Amino acid sequence: xxxxxxxxxxxxxxxxxxxxxxxxxxxxxxxxxxxxxxxxxxxxxxxxxxxxxxxxxxxxxxxxxxxxxxxxxxxxxxxxxxxxxxxxxxxxxxxxxxxxxxxxxxxxxxxxxxxxxxxxxxxxxxxxxxxxxxxxxxxxxxxxxxxxxxxxxxxxxxxxxxxxxxxxxxxxxxxxxxxxxxxxxxxxxxxxxxxxxxxxxxxxxxxxxxxxxxxxxxxxxxxxxxxxxxxxxxxxxxxxxxxxxxxxxxxxxxxxxxxxxxxxxxxxxxxxxx
Length: 274
What we know:
- By secondary structure, the protein is an alpha+beta fold.
- Among the domains are: about 50 residues, Orthogonal Bundle (Helicase, Ruva Protein, domain 3); about 130 residues, 2-Layer Sandwich (Tetrahydropterin Synthase, Chain A), CATH 3.30.479.
- The chain has eleven helices and eight strands.
- A hairpin with a 2-residue loop joins β3 and β4.
- α1 packs across α2 and α2 crosses α3.
- The longest helix is centred in the C-terminal third of the chain and has 19 residues.
């Protein structure tokens, strides 16, 4: 079997994603045959502290935009190849036009949005036209539409991170903003531990077991300690259980209950381009 060629660009990409050292990143890629996601897990199993954005979807450049209207919130990411295009005023105007169109027509998913029309031609056709004009690959990298009694969309300055969040009750918009900013900053994977997928749980348990073994703990203690690490993962990575960024004495659920004892987050989406 031929050896996989690991390039400096591959190493740098992993370093930028994880924050790990260059040599550690190179070793991880070599050990995993160049598999990027496996390399991230390799670093974590070896006890490396990996940056929170490891779970973000890969994208090169572009704009992430969140907007709300009539009880709906949409998050759209229009991606391109270079920062030069992403900061272009016309590109930004086109991205915002697509978001407004999605909201106006309550497009359920990306396919529905691509089928909508502007001046008699589909969004898909307009994107193809933009590719021809600009000479770069342009696509809708991500799209989500959620609904609730209160919805809020947050755009981090620079439009590289955007979040949308829905609640079961209509409360003050400031509450929506606070929680949306929490999601942007802390990148939760689910609302509560019940929302964590079995695949994610299995992955975290495997990584935790390898970390415990690497620490030299007795084998009969591995499962118990690994479960403790998973409980820490729930606390750090599920929204309700995260420490509330504006008051470290509360978790997010406690903050919501301080506003209204029945207030809950029903859905959220987050996207970080880089």
